[in-house]
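Suppose a colleague, Dr. K., hands you the sequence of a protein chain of 115 amino acids and asks what its three-dimensional shape might be. Before reaching for any lab equipment, you can write down a predicted structure in token form. Begin with the sequence itself:
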Amino acid sequence: MTSSIVVQYTDLLRTSDYALWARLRWLLKGQGLAPDRTVVVDLLQEGPDHEDGQVIAGDGRVYRFSLYYDQAARDGALSAQLRNWTDITDSWETGSLAMRTADAFAWRGRPTGQR
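The predicted structure, expressed as tokens, is then:
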């Protein structure tokens, strides 16, 4: 069963007008990812200034990143920046989000071993 977080966050990435999701779409495009083909495995607040995320790109590559922005500022998300962008395609299966990532691969319709 696919995590509802994967489904909800992927839908938000693709359709939300909320500043954080619009900015994340723009930032992912800058990394060469198509938001309409990207699956969000997780985006979790990890501190007062950033959220840690993980996505699956349309080509099956898996990336981990931190999204830094001033969460207290009214328009803080508009200046969000990606940091620690890391390709974890070859190691996601040993990470803390392994089960959710495998479920996300299944949900998107591509076997986990296909890259």
